[in-house]
Amino acid sequence: MRALVVVESMFGNTLAVARAVVEGLSAGGVDGDAVPVTEAPSQVAPEVRLLVVGGPTHAFGLSREGTRADAVRQGGHPDGGADTGLREWLAALEPAEPGVASAAFDTRVRKRGIPGSAARGAEKRLARLGYAQGPTMSFWVNGVSGPLIDGELGRARAWGEELAGRVSADR
């Protein structure tokens, strides 16, 4: 069984989470790859049974060209530049083949009272494309550029393992 993890990352934190999710998937018996959003295919390969997408939360949701440009001004280095993010990739993604599950995660600044989630926005877009809905998860960073809060990579690995168990049980 295969999984594809598509990730948008500005400061490297979301990419680190994606890699930890792949480690967890692997520990759970699901082969997977973390692919930058700028290199992700617009059609999920037939052998992929789980699509996981992840990105940073910007302005209460999925990033936009302007918020990515702002991240670059703050020292971010998005893979492939600021032109394409998860929002644009999802808009170009082909509808799901039957039986392909999905899950979404985001990275967010951990501050009391700040609403919004890129994962929830991605989840809604995946549902419209026919992907079987899985869980969403937020991983926390200290400040805009991070780093990740202690323990978040361990949580990401555990979540990946949980996702592997769910997909294996659905076979």
Q: Could you please describe the fold and organization of this structure?
A:
This protein has 171 residues and is of the alpha/beta class. It has a single domain (2-169), classed as 3-Layer(aba) Sandwich (Rossmann fold), CATH 3.40.50. The chain is 35% helix and 21% strand. 46% of the residues are buried.
Task: Reconstruct the topology from this structure.
Blueprint: E1 2-7, H1 13-27, E2 31-36, E3 48-56, H2 65-73, H3 86-92, E4 101-109, H4 118-128, E5 136-141, H5 152-169
Helix pairs in contact: 1-5
> The CATH topology, please?
Rossmann fold
User: CATH superfamily, called what?
Assistant: Flavodoxin domain
Termini, distance in Å? 10 Å
What can be said about the biggest beta sheet? 5 strands, parallel
Counting DSSP E segments of at least 2 residues, the number of strands comes to 5
Write down the Rg: 15 Å
Order of helices and strands: EHEEHHEHEH
Strand percentage, roughly?
Answer: 15-25%
Class inferred from helices and paired strands: alpha/beta
Low-pLDDT sequence parts: none
Overall average residue pLDDT: 92
- CATH architectural grouping: 3-Layer(aba) Sandwich
Helix content: 25-40%
Q: Any idea what the shape is?
A: globular
Please tally the helical runs, counting DSSP H or I stretches of 4 or more residues: 5
- Integer tally of domains: 1
The main sheet orders its strands as 2-1-3-4-5
